[in-house]
Specification:
Shape: elongated
Number of helices: 4
Number of strands: 4
Strand order of the largest sheet: 1-2-3-4
Order of helices and strands: HHEEEEHH
Length: 188
């Protein structure tokens, strides 16, 4: 059975040093009461303080202190660490793995939709006799074979950039007409 190393009493009493180090990285109102002390094998002492930051329940402000012979205690590290039962982010998954999973799900969904799409292929959503000027009134679902909501490459969050461009063109034309009127005064 291994015994815990003896903690340096000066490190255990260095709460003021630990709080000063914490106040350099976070506002004082995010630091709570002292929680506990952890003694490491190499003589390092970690003082933990309750955390009052929103969104970090179960986390602790941790200040690691050490002391070299005949020297004052010094701060090694200040960090916010999770405690037991703290809310943690899920384990990181590389992009290539997530992309492969997404592509596999899309392929499986496409295979399941093929049977339903064969029946719908006879009924076209697009009228071949439609006037070319009416193309501006069509949206992306009119051209999508599987009916998924794919937007125009420049559309963002459902905003049709073509409509915005048309409005901007109309405003530019109105501004140009106004500036031409100002530039060419009429003779009376």
């Amino acid at each position: 059975m291994t015994s815990k190393p003896e903690a340096d009493p000066r490190l255990l009493e260095a709460h003021d040093l630990a709080l000063a180090a914490l106040r350099e990285i976070t506002p004082a109102d995010t630091i709570g009461e002292p929680a506990d002390v952890r003694v490491e094998d190499d003589g390092v002492v970690s003082l933990r303080f309750e955390n009052r930051l929103n969104g970090y329940p179960g986390w602790f402000w941790t200040v690691s202190l050490a002391r070299v012979e005949d020297a004052e205690p010094t701060v090694l590290e200040v960090e916010l660490l999770p405690g037991d039962g703290a809310l943690l982010a899920p384990e990181w998954v590389p992009w290539a793995v997530r992309l492969a999973e997404y592509q596999a799900a899309q392929a499986a969904a496409a295979d399941g939709d093929d049977d339903a799409d064969e029946d719908d292929d006879d009924e076209a959503d697009f009228d071949d006799d439609a006037d070319v000027d009416d193309l501006d009134d069509l949206d992306a679902t009119d051209f999508d074979e599987d009916g998924s909501p794919i937007l125009h490459a420049g559309d963002l969050d459902g905003v049709d950039i073509d409509e915005l461009a048309e409005e901007a063109d109309e405003e530019d034309e109105a501004d140009d007409a106004d500036s031409e009127d100002d530039a060419d005064p009429q003779d009376d």
